[in-house]
TrEMBL record:
InterPro entries per UniProt: DNA_brk_join_enz (IPR011010), Integrase-like_cat_sf (IPR013762), Integrase_catalytic (IPR002104), Tyrosine_recombinase_XerCD (IPR050090)
GO biological process, one term: DNA recombination
Ribosomal protein found in the keyword field: no
Keywords tagged on the record: DNA integration, DNA recombination
Protein name: Site-specific recombinase, phage integrase family protein
Lineage of the species this protein comes from: Bacteria, Pseudomonadati, Pseudomonadota, Gammaproteobacteria, Alteromonadales
Domain Tyr recombinase: 204-418
GO molecular function annotations of the record: DNA binding
Entries under Pfam families matching the protein: Phage_integrase
Length: 459
């Protein structure tokens, strides 16, 4: 029997533990236990389990894990499953409040009402602003439509709930959009649509973290983290976010072997389960990589030996970022929490999150390649070429999704010069700047002996 829980108004789902197992009845020889770690469990607002959504999320999570394992990604913390859970929770709340938890009672007009509710909701932190843009509302509603198709296929004896036919309770259509791959090949992608999903008439706003706020994060880390092992590890996390523009999961998946290779090639391999592209190479100057290599050979090496001696692990796990208590790999959620905690410690009022390092990286890449053009003189073919090149570095499957960065990039042009060499020079300068900032900060709080300073400056 599952007990009802008092659910937080802001989140309707919780994740299973790393040790969670479920009973699998699909085996003809009898039931078996299967591992089910980090799977979102959805609850209705009244605290009871919403089993249809939970089972749907489990299936999606299973698909994500299979894709991760096929690419060699170890034990993901369910980032994509968490995203699906967050999106569908809006639908769960609506069905609970207006339809007594009955998915089969939904009709087209109900989706109209739901869309209206989503559009009119006010942001509590910014009372003069709506809580979400039309694009986000569309993503939320398409998640619900995808679930309803699954629900109809697996849990109903008829197919009248949702479909393209006029007789369905919910009538949908399929639209197509042209996309261009990194190789320049054009293709059409089909996506589900409903007439009450609002048009994407609100421009996508990109927020990149600024140089000043990045400096504040490093300062806050130094001032608030007394454990030098934790501080040095987290410094490396910030450096890699800044230097690579990698997604959180891509940074979390890095190994010490990746860093060793990058010392020679000055190119870092990033891998993710987000798309069909297994991995990509990102140019990273030695000024970023060398301090991380020193961390591996000093603080991390010492901690791994200690964990082995204490019986916590049997061998080096090879993951670059590990839990200092048990040696397990750090998940991408830790990176999110790290930046969030540092933002509060640094008293940064504006929005600041780990993903904004990625926006900054992409903006700089686009800005440098726009060097020879003024805002009104950018030919379409040149813009497409620039976005295709940057997409190969950022890991975006569709270069068109980078177009909002063009406006943001022009703001960067006044601060930096011309030619592709500028990217290399800028990376080296910023990498060196961060290292000087860290050394200076440690000198100010008397954390560094003369011998340690000499060691850092001569490596």
């Amino acid at each position: 029997m599952v007990k009802k829980l008092k659910m937080n108004n802001r989140q309707l789902w919780k994740k299973t533990s790393n040790e969670c197992q479920l009973v699998d009845f699909s085996n003809e020889n009898g039931s078996t236990l299967v591992n089910a770690p980090n799977i979102p469990v959805m609850f209705w607002p009244d605290g009871s389990v919403c089993w249809p959504i939970t089972i749907w999320l489990m299936e999606r999570g299973k698909s994500y894990l299979a894709r991760s394992n096929s690419k060699g990604i170890r034990n993901s913390n369910g980032g994509s499953s968490n995203t699906h859970a967050s999106l569908i929770s809006h639908f769960v709340r609506f069905v609970h409040n207006y339809h007594s938890k009955d998915f089969t009672s939904l009709y087209d007009d109900d989706l109209k009402r739901w869309a209206k509710n989503l559009k009119e909701e006010i942001d509590t932190k910014r009372p003069n602003s709506k809580k979400r843009k039309n694009t986000q509302i569309g993503t939320i509603m398409r998640s619900a439509l995808t679930f309803l198709f699954w629900y109809q296929r697996h849990m109903l004896y008829h197919n009248k709930l949702i479909g393209e036919d006029i007789g369905n309770q919910i009538t949908i259509s399929y639209n197509t959009i042209k996309t261009k791959s990194k190789t320049g090949k054009t293709s059409r992608q089909k996506y589900i649509h409903h007439r009450h999903i609002p048009d994407n008439n609100t421009p996508k706003k990109i927020f990149a973290i600024g140089h000043e706020n990045i400096t504040k994060l490093y300062d806050a880390l130094r001032e608030t983290t007394l454990n030098i092992q934790v501080r040095k590890r987290n410094e490396c996390i910030l450096k890699l976010l800044e230097a690579t523009g990698g997604r959180r999961v891509e940074v979390a998946e890095l190994t010490i072997d990746d860093i060793e290779l990058a010392l020679t090639t000055e190119r870092l391999m990033l891998r993710t389960a987000k798309s069909n592209n297994n991995e990509r190479e990102v140019p990273v100057a030695k000024q970023w990589i060398e301090p991380i290599a020193r961390y591996i050979n000093t603080f991390r090496k010492k901690k791994v030996k200690e964990l082995i001696k204490n019986g916590k692990i049997s061998a080096d796990p090879r993951s670059l970022f590990i839990n200092l208590n048990n040696g397990s790999k750090l998940y991408e959620t830790y990176i999110s929490k790290l930046v969030s905690d540092l933002r509060r410690a640094a008293n940064i009022n504006e929005k600041t999150c780990a993903h904004m390092f990625r926006h900054r990286f992409i903006t700089i890449q686009v800005a440098t390649r726009l060097k020879d053009f003024r805002k009104g003189d950018l030919p379409i073919d040149v813009a497409n070429s620039i976005l295709t090149k940057v997409a190969s570095l950022s890991g975006h499957s569709n270069p068109e999704s980078l177009r909002p960065y063009i406006d943001l990039a022009f703001a960067e042009l006044d601060a930096w010069g011309t030619a592709d060499k500028v990217l290399e020079m800028r990376s080296k300068l910023e990498g060196a700047y961060r290292e000087i900032q860290i050394i200076k900060g440690e000198l100010e709080i008397d954390k560094l002996s003369k011998q340690q300073l000499f060691y850092k400056m001569t490596l």
